[in-house]
Amino acid sequence: MRAQVLESFNKPYTFKSDHPSPPSPKGHELLIHVQAASYCHTDAVFASGAMQQGLPRIGSHEFAGIIDSFGPEAEKVAQKRGLKKGDLVGVPGRAFGPCGECTECVENDGDMPGYGVWCTRAGNLGLTRDGGFQEWCLVDSRQVAKVPEGGLKPVEIAPLMCAGVTVWNALETAGVSTAEGKGNGEAKFVAILGAGGGLGHLGVQFAARLGWNVVAVDTTGALGMLGDVVKDLGEDGKRVHVVDALKESVEDAKKRIFEAPAQGLEGEKGCDSSIILPESQAAFDFGMSVLKNHGTCVAVSFPKDGWKFKPGDLVFRHIKLLGVLVGRNHQLQAMVDFAAGHNVRARIKTYPLEGLNTLVEDYHKGAGGKLVVDMGLKQ
Ligand SMILES: [Zn+2]
Ligand SMILES: [Zn+2]
């Protein structure tokens, strides 16, 4: 089969036309015919050698494919979940073959019994096991997301499997109610730092569609694509306030978006929560300062050497600082269903599998949106 294999760190992927196909599925495994596979920042981090995991490896931990065959345990899971041969599913990287015994697996907030996405004994597709940059892949029947019929195309599903679920979890952690209709009418504000990036432009769409006001912060280069995203949101787009952080300070943005506070009550004006997506001190500072007192700051990314932060923000302003990493599988499914039903779509650029190294070059040049391998494209 065709596959792209990372054989050395800091080198391009090697294309193979005769890579061995995976064996028949065992246990909880499903064999998937991959249709589309998306590139994530973590793929770039892995390829740089910073994660100290083994090679060779086939990357991509956000992909979509068609179910071909089942291991014996997977057959039972499929019956319970209403999955059958020929169904299109979304595949996140986490968690392949969790142990079923640890606290993560047992206390899993309503995911399938014994299935914990943060089980440290589980494999991660695209990182510790082979992922989606190949024609066929073994995945765990418990990790996949069902795709509503007629809902989403494979190239649209793939970017939701890491970027989508991560930003969905960040929004829930930021206090955005993802139960349909619940957020409507509440005049609440979430700031999204890095709003024009892969996760950010999905987060803007989810938050606006869920009825929240969004302060969408990015820098000049990313704002063109963000403008198109806001336009496509129609009425919901009217709740999105775009800020170019190169041209407007956080103080000026607050003055423009919120009513002027009474003297001495400045802490009463600002966002209820903020989500930090870029690995930057400037984004973190903006995200903390844009909050009103008692607000919540949710970190998704951070610089290698960490941030400098003002403990006074936590103590005197009572800001809560939280972090998220991907999300539970019930969140993954809720996010896919919501995206299908409310026209939330990643801005994508597609490449054939043979063009993966061109995709990676474009990624490092700062291409906007999500870059996706479409297995159906011929070079
Ligand atoms: Zn990822
Ligand atoms: Zn476990």
Automatic annotation (TrEMBL):
Record flagged with keyword Oxidoreductase: yes
UniProt keyword annotations, A-Z: Metal-binding, Oxidoreductase, Zinc
GO CC, one annotated term: cytoplasm
Domain Alcohol dehydrogenase-like C-terminal span(s) in chain numbering: 198-340
Named cofactor requirement(s): Zn(2+)
Domain Alcohol dehydrogenase-like N-terminal: 28-149
Taxonomy, superkingdom: Eukaryota
InterPro entries attached to this UniProt entry: ADH-like_C, ADH-like_N, GroES-like_sf, NAD(P)-bd_dom_sf
GO molecular function, one term: alcohol dehydrogenase (NAD+) activity
PANTHER family, sorted: ALCOHOL DEHYDROGENASE 1-RELATED, VACUOLAR PROTEIN SORTING-ASSOCIATED PROTEIN 11
Family statement: Belongs to the zinc-containing alcohol dehydrogenase family.
Protein name: Alcohol dehydrogenase
Organism expressing this protein natively: Cladophialophora chaetospira
Highest classification ranks of the organism: Eukaryota, Fungi, Dikarya, Ascomycota, Pezizomycotina
